[in-house]
Design a protein that fits this description.
homodimer; 18 strands; 2 domains; 7-stranded mixed beta sheet; alpha/beta; Metallo-beta-lactamase, Chain A
Chain lengths: 298, 298
């Protein structure tokens, strides 16, 4: 699992920072969380194949979070993509994608499906779940929570002790089934240990500090809106954003493992002021930079 | 007068090159010729104020030439622009802008007017004319010709010799009126010399080599499609683009002063191959790079 910050600015780009997008590389798949203008070029710059993007999540309909979609779709078509692409977003996603597909003279080469993110949104496969978390911004907006699903540890020594040989019986037990050995039944509980740790990544999107993020935060790699430093707390309140202190307090109270500040106002260059303020509360803080690659803490 | 190449790639961006756009800085105004994805950021990088962009010309409706519009409009609105913006483009410009304005949740803070570019398109003010030139691409496409309007040189020595004192009589003669001095009439022809040289910039947009560009080329700074090198002439024909040799031949036959190759396929990095081929025909050739600044030859 790897996170790549493709764009980390707030609203307006700067020489240093492009518009919002985060790539999650997981197994052979790339998920995009938001897709601001310039995302296709940042994917190319980060040597992340846009053809491996299977699912795109748009957290809300401010342009700096989705205006990279039309160009990305057109480039995918230009490259002859045939694999279906899913795009998730709040109410209105179908209309938005309809408008996006109306832009310009080209043929979409692949199927594009949309699905609405709601407060109950859960996407689940055998490897992970992704949930939508309603946050508090000026328009309907959802944060996103990625949780890897990990099975329980298989205690090989215990299995051997009970006379079970490596093979199909192991898989059966791992999947929760019982196995009969020499007239005795062995239960999964006899050979399964702790649940293995999985990655947990939580993205606040654009928001005021909010309970929904706080309560999902435990043990996570938290990526939080930190548009302003604390001296501009008034601006943060007025524009429904967070300060770096807001983000650090969520990380601390919520028990995050690490915190990445993003959606940085272009008034901050490298963001030392944000970093110093946030670290005074939550030391494991980093200010995200464009093209920064991160392996989340397990 | 200064040209800034904001984006010089063909279709798909690369680490080196972004999508098509050229800024013409002229007096206190900025014109944009095409506005591909990422143009607003390139304006910022080149320290060119997006608030000074008064007119945008979209040469055709392939996404790599206009998908920077929605983000640019939103950023201008975010910055509180109130000045009217004109957007010119081929048939369909009104619909296109309608779709672009439908994208996302924001209020446009300024008036946005559109005007269609046709084969007869001429925009004229006291300083310059801009013409549309129909070119030969896979969809309706116009090249653009900028010509500065310059008056004739005023021959001060001759005027003094004829007994005319500096003042209103000079202006009258410069504007083409006669002046009476000591019962003699002085005609403009008596005191006006050569027409002063003005800037002439010709942009082919995406096209096969075409007579319309050739015949407008004399004395110009020519910016020409050079998507491919000559070994891929077949690709150029099939996709309605030009090779660097096509561009150089137009420049040579048409009498351009200098040639800039643009719309460079991402397969070429620095473009030496394009440069060497083109210079074998037209030595004053440069391969445009993103953020390259050029003062056209007078």
């Amino acid at each position: 699992m790897e996170l790549i910050f493709l764009g980390t600015t707030a609203a307006v780009p700067s020489s240093e920072r492009g518009h919002s997008s985060i790539a999650l590389k997981y197994h052979d798949e790339v998920l995009l969380w938001d897709c601001g203008e310039g995302t296709q070029r940042q994917l190319i710059r980060s040597k992340t194949s846009y053809m491996k993007v299977k699912k795109i999540f748009i957290t809300h309909y401010h342009g700096d979070h989705f205006l990279g979609l039309p160009g990305l779709f057109q480039t995918m078509s230009f490259a002859g993509r045939s694999e279906e692409l899913m795009v998730y977003g709040p109410k209105g996603i179908k209309n938005l994608i309809g408008n996006v597909l109306d832009l310009g003279e080209y043929e979409l080469s692949f199927d594009l499906r949309t699905k609405r993110i709601t407060g109950n949104f859960i996407l689940k496969d055998e490897k992970c779940t992704i949930r939508g978390i309603k946050v508090n911004h000026s328009i309907p907006t959802y944060g996103l929570l990625f949780e890897e699903i990990k099975g329980r540890e298989f205690l090989i020594d215990k299995a051997l002790e009970l006379g079970i040989k490596p093979g199909p019986a192991y898989s059966r037990l791992q999947r929760g089934g019982r196995v009969k050995i020499d007239e005795h039944w062995v239960d999964p509980e006899d050979v399964l240990g702790e649940i293995k740790k999985g990655y947990k990544v939580l993205y606040s999107s654009d928001t005021r500090p909010i309970d929904g993020i706080l309560s999902s935060c435990d043990g996570s790699t938290l990526i939080h809106d930190a548009t302003f430093d604390e001296s501009l707390a008034k601006n943060a309140r007025e524009t429904y954003h967070s300060t770096c202190i807001d983000a650090a307090e969520i990380a601390k109270k919520g028990g995050a493992k690490e915190l990445f500040l993003t959606h940085i106002s272009p008034r901050y260059k490298k963001g030392e002021v944000l970093l110093n303020q946030a670290r005074s509360i939550f030391p494991r803080t980093t200010v995200a930079r464009d093209l920064m690659r991160v392996k989340p803490i397990l």
